[in-house]
Amino acid sequence: MAKLLYSATMSLDGYIAGPGGDMSWLTEHAAEENPTADRLLAGVGAILAGNGTFGGDDPNRGTDSEGAFGGQYHGPVFVLTHRPPADPPTDVTFVGDLPSAIEQSKQAAGDRYVNILGADVARQCIEAGLLDEILMFVAPVLLGDGVRMFDRPGGTNVRLEPVAGEVEHWYRVVY
């Protein structure tokens, strides 16, 4: 059965996007060779993204590298939203509630990962007790403001354990 994995690249101060969702800061860091990212991409069977992430900024917009994983991902994409577009792309499924989005994306992923893109969807999965793992790549930059990797004002701690045999910053969520 598929696992839900939240992965992203964050700044050293914990932001996955700059102010207003700006992703231009990531362009110089995304070009670096990363065997873990390549291995992750090979293990992703579906993507579940929030609407803000799906329609947001792309550090590679207008290039051959536009899209998830620098344009290298080609597979099922599910977008969690209460406002699907009037004319949706044919290769994207828009889903109105988290349980249905998770069910559909897990089914599409088979025994591979459902990669969660977007801090809000990841937070919702954690709050529902459904997120299995978190993998964060850390870029050597300080943004100072923007979209936090995880934001849960007034929330409680979320316990994480390193995934045995994996790289630094790859964790299992402990409920």
Structure in words:
The chain has 175 residues and is of the alpha/beta class. 22% of the residues lie in helices and 29% in strands. The chain is built from five helices and ten strands, in the order ββααβαββαβαββββ. The chain has helices spanning 27-30, 35-43, 51-54, 98-109, 119-127; strands at residues 3-11, 15-17, 44-50, 77-80, 92-95, 113-117, 133-139, 147-148, 159-162, 170-174. The strands form two sheets. The protein has an eight-stranded mixed sheet. A two-stranded antiparallel sheet has the order 2-8. Strand 9 (159-162) and strand 10 form a beta hairpin. The protein starts with a strand and ends with a strand. The mean pLDDT is 93.
The percent of residues in helical segments reads 10-25%
Can you tell me the CATH architecture? 3-Layer(aba) Sandwich
The gross shape turns out to be globular
Biggest pleated-sheet summary: 8 strands, mixed
CATH class: Alpha Beta
How many domain units? Answer: 1
Estimated share of beta-strand residues:
25-35%
Rg calc: 15 Å
Strand order of the main beta sheet, please?
5-4-3-6-1-7-10-9
Structural class determined from secondary elements:
alpha/beta
Low-confidence stretches: none
Q: How many individual helices?
A: 5
The tally of strands reads 10
Descriptors:
alpha/beta, globular, Dihydrofolate Reductase, subunit A, 22% helix, two-stranded antiparallel sheet, eight-stranded mixed beta sheet, 175 residues, 5 helices
